[in-house]
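Predict the structure of Family 2 glycosyl transferase.
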Amino acid sequence: MSFPRVAIIILNWNGWEDTLECLESVYQINYPEYDVIVVDNNSEDISIKKIEDYCAGYIKVDSNFFNYQNKNPIKIFEYSSNELQSSKLPEMDVINSVKPNEKLILIKNHKNYGFAKGNNIGISYALKSLDADYVLLLNNDTVVDKDFLTELVDAAKTNDNVGFVGPKVYIYSDKNTLQVAGGAKVDLKHGEVDEIAYHQRDEGQFDHYLEPDYIGGTCILCSREVIEEVGMLDPGYFMYWEDADWCFRGRKQGYKSVYAFKSKIWHKYGASSDTPFKMYYFTRNRIYFVKKNSTRGEFFLFSMFILAVTLSKSLRQLILQCDSKMSYAYLKGFFDGITLSVNSKVKV
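Done. Here is the predicted structure for Family 2 glycosyl transferase.
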């Protein structure tokens, strides 16, 4: 039987402990034809050293989800992002000769490009150098089921209109509670998302076919053909909303987002505290996303709504909590989102 070649891209930034657990779970999957690419976004910690030590067999990964397997050392093919500018790298025959669970492609970025551009570097390499049939974006703070990739690929092959596929995502700390069933629905009038199955106990109620508006970036499978037509992630987002944008651009080209309920992963998801940095990007990108995906009239109405929300939140932060930094982040995010130029397609 012939299996499509899948490039699994894992973005790392100062998160080597999560990345090692993710890698070990990936190397134990049953799917026979894949390449693992770790893109390091210029980590400031010892991530590179720890990843190298793990591949050499010096670090044993402990997890409640699997037993660590003693195996041959993992061969690392290491490149800087600048080295990837060449059209064909000389080691491809060597890379192809190594078993999937015995090799790692490590791409080291010279700066933190954020989620979108960081992953785009991996996507570009996967399509141009590995000749991958599919690309899978996988958060480094996840653990995967042994059959997760088989189920994703099977769902992707059901018909030519499937553009993006996502799994059933459980919360890492509570194995039977769902974070999301594939993705979410989007309310463009208010720039809000409603994650399907959010924090519900899994009792089989979501074991059926679904078409979300978009697949969450925690784990998203996309084919070469779709990427070549739709483009890659829009780097203008940096963080937040880029996954929704990708799927919406695909939808305009006639591609569905599909939930593969038999595919399972666990995500170290939890409520994180707001910071001015996060609030700025979330506010800005929320506006940028709606601008790209609505009519002028709809965007005007949304702008009035979000302005009222932003001003009220900003004043509350400033007056009641005496937090001028958070207040400034709200306002700057609003005005930058309004003025940010739309990037309709990011070519491979």
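Residues 276-339 form one domain.
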